[in-house]
Amino acid sequence: MSGQHDEDDFAPTTTPGYKIGAAKSVDEYAKLDAEDESLARWKASLGIVPGAASGPATGPQVSVLTLELASPTLPAGKKLAMNINDPAALAEIKKHPFVIKEGVEYNVRITFKVNHGICSGVRYLQVVKRAGVKMDKMEQMLGSYGPHPQGEAYTKNFEPEESPSGMLARSGTYNVRSRVVDDDGQVYADWEWSFKLGKDWS
Hints:
Layout: H1 26-31, H2 37-45, E1 62-70, E2 80-83, H3 87-95, E3 98-101, E4 105-114, E5 119-130, E6 133-145, E7 154-157, E8 161-162, H4 167-170, E9 174-181, E10 187-198
Parallel strand pairs: 3-10
Antiparallel strand pairs: 1-2, 1-4, 4-7, 4-8, 5-6, 5-9, 9-10
Main location: cytoplasm
Keywords: Cytoplasm
Protein name: Rho GDP dissociation inhibitor
């Protein structure tokens, strides 16, 4: 599957005239507009408070943990999730792709942790190809985050979409490359996986 996805496929959309501001520490962000109560509450929800310990600034700023395909039509107890940090599990998904039921509503769900500092404009990019032909590209904004006050992971549910249906859609394997990147072009995760469409979840 490697080499089937071009870097051009992962160029995020940009807004003309938008400039990325200089990076600031958690404490610097906490002190900005300190008199604005609603802004202060929003910053506190992200763990941005004066004197907050944001952890040592070592290692990746963002750790992507899991990606899951969720659907109200999934049988009870069935879960389609991948551990991004387990190479053996990802290799298994490439050998034995997820099977998504055709014509149903589902959504992508991602979990990640912010280890230190403030990450700005984090987004998820996904390119789907079949037999080397690009079938779909998804770009979803995760947002801007600081470390969670309790050190917990964040979960982001993307908007629901409907899986394709029909005999043509069910033929072949869909190869996916996923990437999590921020406004500065910092890549936090980049991995490949596969899925097929079927008449039922399996």
